[in-house]
Design brief:
Elements lengths: L17 H6 L5 H13 L1 H12 L8 E6 L2 E6 L2 E2 L1 H10 L7 E6 L5 E5 H17 L8 E4 L4 H13 L3 E3 L6 H11 L3 E5 L1 E4 L2 E4 H9 L7 E5 L13 E3 H6 L10 E2 L3 E7 L7 E6 L1 H13 L8 E4 L6 H13 L3 E5 L10 H9 L3 E4 L1 H10 L2 H4 L8 E5 L5 H11 L6 E4 L33 E4 L11 E6 L14 H9 L6 E9 L5 E6 L3 E4 L2 E4 H9 L4 E11 L3 E10 L6 H15 L8 E4 L13 H10 L13 H8 L5
The chain binds 5'-O-[(S)-butoxy(hydroxy)phosphoryl]adenosine.
Length: 650
């Protein structure tokens, strides 16, 4: 997206506005440096002191950290409950009648749920789960629209120590099935459907399809959201509101170990099989809570809105657990930003007086494209802080966000983290750190990133390398569900003894971190992680496909788009129809959000002599339309010429 000449130049350094710094939780660079250094000197006790004061424990922990690399235990011996920390503890204070959740559905329905009301709803739902015979340690799948009941289901599970896995509503029945099976879940919590772009997303239908081959499922709980007709299987399926009729409101939070599993969230890796990232209780909650205060500068009076869906990690840490543990008012919106018109978000900001607004670069770019007239219709004067997450933010999008949404008044926190890290690890403390558009600036206290070469040696400042972390942190993933070997191999073996993020980065002469993107076979489409291998295995399941290779192609709005190179089985012709059919096939196998942008048919794929597909060459072809890189290991040189000539059939 090129900038018209009349726009102001993109700034290179934006110091914290004086007024902002004066009121900030962490004010001035000296305060940040002091905290950072104190943490670096003794990370375990730094976190231990915070855990003791910032979380409520039934039993105080014995030790902040037990580290048997690569397995960490934080706050061992401590007993707590995450739902107690997110709900009950606020009910005991003047926050009792403060709004915990402000919700608006896509059709315009509104709800304001106070902390006291949230406690009632969470207890009632937990009581329904108990009534169904579920107990601590059983697993639940949550497949819900963005409505308060998604958060209530998460907190209800957390109250009983039932680890949950939220599956994004945009995933297909196939993807849902794979997750239920891997988790061996006993219950699916869902809704009849949800609203998206004025259409119903039929969730219960997908659940019916998925659970056909999930023998571990005993119950399906269905919340009535849209009121459309759904099939209810006697004995297995239960309406949420019917269970609620006999629910009780006095359900004690179970006293759980600090390391009790809180949730598993599936994310794409470098193979066809998604990884179940396991997060546990005390450490996860502590770091989600602290980053609310440090990065979002949270105050009691804030109205905080993170636009992420609860199906992604951002929705876990920064719509539900982080904000509620910190006692914030968190906004949830069910639908699309363009329904009924492109100013829906700005309308909500003014209506509810949103003061902190957190979204993704993809969303920002999509809104830029629609023109400034949409935000211009609204005051946006309640906003004091903006945030960005999911992918590198290009400076032009940064500048627009700063000027058109923040009216040149609001700092932007560019937050780098991952499903695996659980909480923000690199981001500015906005009252302390000057911003450079496109940089996540500095690490959080207690986090020591390094940028290294292929051999694990630190590279010079200014040079690009792999971003790694050498020391454990409280909200880190504990393992891959059911597969500790894969956990070791994927994250802790590339650079021995260090956590490998899979991202390339560089640190500039002022110590600012710039995360450049993935270095593995993972694409980032609209800030959502997609694995090339997962889409390839979906494609080769189709009867006409012989082989497939998938790469990310630069895209103006979504950062990257899915581009598939496909060879067909002998005798299959009719490419014309097949392009559309294969795109639909992938949407069916994984979910509509994974639908490829482009299918290119080709006679052969570039391979090494050992038969490995050279995705690097394909990436070059879709990025620069030529191949300049090393091709000495390529088996058949002719493939390249024909590939460069292959055109989009769709
Ligand atoms: C990958 C993690 C973290 C929640 C959303 C995505 C990329 C994320 C940034 C940022 C540059 C970023 C990285 C990372 N990423 N935030 N601020 N600047 N890149 O979670 O699906 O686990 O993806 O997203 O490549 O590794 P995820």
């Amino acid at each position: 997206m090129s900038q018209p000449a009349s726009l102001p130049a993109i700034p290179t350094l934006v110091p914290p506005p004086e007024e902002f710094a004066a009121q900030a939780n962490v004010s001035g660079i000296a305060a940040y440096n002091e905290m950072y250094q104190r943490a670096a000197a003794d990370p375990a006790n730094f976190w231990g002191d915070l855990a003791a004061t910032e979380l409520d424990w039934f039993k105080r922990f014995d030790k902040p950290l037990v580290w048997e690399p690569p397995f960490a235990k934080w706050f061992e011996g401590g007993k707590l409950n995450v739902s107690y920390n997110c709900v009950d503890r606020h009910v005991k204070t003047h926050q009792r009648n403060k709004a915990a959740i402000i919700f608006e559905g896509e059709p315009g329905d509104q709800r304001v749920i106070t902390y006291h009301e949230l406690q009632r709803l969470v207890c009632r739902f937990a009581s329904s789960l108990l009534h169904l015979g579920l107990k601590t340690g059983d697993r639940a799948i949550i497949y819900m629209p963005m409505i308060p009941e998604a958060a209530i289901a998460m907190l209800g599970c957390a109250r009983l120590g039932i680890p949950h896995s939220v599956v994004f509503g945009g995933f297909s029945a196939e993807a849902l099935k794979a997750r239920i099976q891997d988790l061996e879940a006993k219950v699916v919590i869902t809704a009849d459907g949800g609203w998206r772009r004025a259409k119903e997303v039929k969730l219960k239908e997908a659940v019916d399809e998925a659970v056909k081959s999930c023998p571990t499922i005993e119950h399906v709980v269905v919340y009535k959201r849209t009121g459309s007709t759904v099939h209810m299987q006697e004995g297995r399926d239960h309406w949420w509101h019917v269970l609620d009729e006999t629910a009780i409101e006095d359900v004690a939070p179970v006293e759980l170990d600090s390391e009790h599993p809180l949730y598993v969230l599936y994310t794409s890796g470098t193979t066809g099989k998604p990884k179940g990232i396991l997060h546990t209780s005390g450490g996860y909650l502590l770091q989600a809570t602290m980053t609310m205060k440090w990065v979002f500068d949270l105050k009691e009076s804030d109205t905080y809105w993170c636009t992420a869906d609860v199906g992604w990690v951002t929705g876990h840490s920064y719509v539900v657990y982080g904000p509620l543990s910190a006692g914030a008012t968190t906004v949830m919106y069910e639908g699309a930003p363009d329904t009924p018109a492109f100013d829906r978000w700005w309308r909500l900001v003014d209506k509810y007086g949103v003061s902190i607004f957190y979204t993704s670069p993809t969303a920002i770019r999509a809104l830029i494209r629609q023109g400034d007239q949409w935000p211009a219709k609204h005051k946006l004067s309640s906003i004091r802080l903006l945030g960005s997450v999911g992918e590198p933010i290009n400076p032009a999008a940064w500048a627009w966000f700063h000027r058109v949404i923040g009216h040149n008044r609001c700092p932007i926190v560019d937050t780098w983290w991952q499903t695996e890290t659980g909480a923000i690890l690199i981001a500015p403390m906005p009252g302390a750190v000057g911003l450079k558009p496109g940089s996540g600036t500095f690490p959080m206290p207690g986090i020591s990133p390094q940028i290294v070469d292929n051999n694990g040696n630190p590279v010079e400042d200014g040079k690009e390398g792999f971003l790694i972390l050498r020391t454990p942190w409280p909200s880190m993933l504990r393992t891959i569900w059911g597969d500790p070997e894969r956990y070791k191999e994927q994250y802790w073996s590339k650079v021995p003894g260090a956590y490998f993020t899979g991202d390339a980065a560089r640190k500039d002469k002022d110590g600012y971190y710039w995360v450049l993107g993935r270095v593995d076979d993972v694409m980032n489409v609209s800030g959502h992680r997609l694995s090339t291998m997962e889409i390839e295995s979906a494609l080769v399941k189709h009867h006409a496909v012989a082989e497939a290779a998938v790469v990310g192609k630069p895209h103006e709005i979504t950062g990257q788009a899915v581009c598939c190179f496909v060879t067909l089985k002998k005798g299959v012709a009719d490419h014309e129809k097949l392009g559309g059919e294969l795109r639909q096939w992938v949407a069916h196998e994984i979910g509509p959000f994974a639908r490829p942008e482009e299918i290119r048919f080709t006679e052969a794929l570039p391979k090494t002599r050992s038969g490995k597909i050279m995705r690097r060459l394909l990436r070059e072809i879709v990025t620069s339309h030529t191949v300049a890189g090393d091709v000495t290991t390529l088996e058949d040189m002719n493939v390249l010429t024909s590939l460069s000539a292959a055109h989009d059939e769709d």
